[in-house]
Design a protein that fits this description.
The chain contains 12 helices and 22 strands. With 431 residues, it is an alpha/beta fold. The strands form 6 sheets. The protein has a 5-stranded mixed beta sheet with strand order 13-12-16-14-15, sandwiched between helices. One of its GO terms (cellular component) is membrane.
């Protein structure tokens, strides 16, 4: 079986190949390295095998008789050295190299905030990992807190996850570590929303957690950090949720330790195989995931693979309302095309501020209203709306669009329908 390792799996510059075709590699062997003095990360083979292809985009390894219980160990000694060498990046979002955060010094007054929100609907592997091994999360927190000189650690987790919360309470043995229960709304796991809820500070969109004397890491990142420091294990494996239009329709599966580089098709087969009819395959969550294909590989930031329901036929002319917390304009245009709809107008949530080439919400999850934007799309000739709004924004859209006789579609519809979950529209109660 072939394993494909993308050279860009993180924020920063692509990794540089450290092997050539014909080379034999072992599981845990470095096959691509971070360019010196650049933001990036090393990449390791997750299998034993022979390198068959190397180019500017990827490395392909033909797997041969891998013993997945064994790997080439890291050579670093300190937690900082091991995390940097391991190739660890943020595993809950864009893939920011974790060694940068490990180099922060909070001066014995800062806070480590753990993102255990499991923010995207359907995804459930982080909570499953906590329920299975809560003590390892606490061990990882202590490593980070000691390294960055944080005086407190807070685990932000939605209060609906009662079993995971109970399991954490069983193993927390340090008064400096606490649990903060979050509302069950999207996007509670957005970094600034999480800080607002846990420590009471709302950062400006261009600011970072370090400006609030905080380090934010998600659950799986911490589990893999612990592996790097205590087991000297490179980042080679990935936890993920696989769900949707599978052979067992509407099922949700959690898998631990899928080797990075595995094809999407192989992971779906592990979940029982793909159904006969589906709309698209999403890599990631329903809100922020991207369309992918069976031949594409699992990368470091792959948190989910969702086989979405077939697309609804949309109106002839559709307006797009883009939220900084959900699918971007390109993603909505892609979906509108699949619905057979012509895009006649594009509006952005009034809080979606432009920051360094991307959009960030001024106050994630708390919406001031979307009536003006909806009216603009109606005047542009829209016969329906396709939106990517958060829970609260969707509430405000639904307070006016139906009165204007505009049917509303959401970027998450195909994913949510595929597992028979309630669609993101108007909710009477969000807590």
């Amino acid at each position: 079986m072939k394993y494909t390792f993308k050279l860009r799996q993180h924020i920063g510059v692509p990794s540089e190949p450290a092997v050539k075709p014909g080379d034999k590699v072992q599981r845990g062997e470095k096959i691509a390295k971070r360019p010196k003095e650049s933001l990036g990360a090393n990449i390791f083979s997750s299998v034993d095998g022979v390198v068959t292809e190397v180019d500017d985009d990827h490395i392909i390894v033909e797997e041969e008789n891998t013993d997945f219980s064994k790997y080439v160990k890291l050579s670093g000694q300190t937690p900082k050295e091991l995390v940097e060498e391991s190739g660890l990046v943020g595993l809950g979002g864009a893939g920011f190299p974790t060694y940068i955060k490990m180099n922060f010094d909070l001066g014995k007054e800062g806070i480590l905030v753990v993102n255990a929100a499991e923010c995207e609907p359907i995804l459930s592997h982080n909570i499953a990992r906590i329920e299975d091994e809560p003590e390892k999360l606490i061990e990882a927190m202590k490593i980070v807190m000691e390294t960055v000189h944080a005086v407190r650690g807070i685990i932000g987790i939605k209060k609906i996850h009662e079993k995971a919360i109970d399991r954490l309470k069983e193993v927390i043995d340090d008064s400096t570590i606490s649990i903060h229960e979050l509302q069950n709304i999207y996007p509670m796991g957005e970094e600034r929303a999480l800080l607002r809820e846990t420590i009471g500070i709302l950062l400006e969109p261009e600011k970072f957690p370090s400006d609030a004397k905080a380090v934010v890491l998600n659950v799986e990142t911490l589990y893999r950090l612990r592996e790097a420091v205590l087991d000297k294990k490179p980042l080679m494996d990935k936890d993920m949720t696989v769900a949707g239009k599978l052979t067992e329709n509407g099922s949700i599966h959690v898998f631990f330790d899928i080797p990075i580089g595995t094809s999407v098709e192989s992971v779906i087969e592990k979940a029982g195989g793909i159904g006969s009819e589906y709309g698209e395959i999403i890599m990631g969550g329903p809100f922020t995931g991207k369309r992918t294909y069976l031949y594409q590989p699992v990368i470091k930031t792959t948190g989910g693979i969702i086989v979405a329901e077939t697309f609804w036929q949309g109106p002839k002319k559709i307006g797009l309302l883009v939220c900084a917390c959900g699918g971007d304009e390109a993603r909505l245009r892609e979906q509108a095309a699949s619905m057979g709809s012509e895009v006649v107008g594009v509006e952005f949530c009034k809080q979606a501020r432009q920051v360094k080439g991307t959009r960030k919400c001024e106050n994630p999850g708390i919406c001031p209203g979307q009536v003006q934007k909806v009216l603009k799309l109606k005047k542009a000739g829209a016969e329906g709306l396709l939106i990517s709004n958060c829970t609260d924004c969707s509430n405000t859209v639904m307070s006016c669009a139906p009165q204007l006789k505009l049917p509303v579609y959401h970027c998450t519809d195909g994913a949510m329908r595929s597992v028979n979950k309630k669609l993101i529209r108007k909710f009477k109660e969000t807590s």
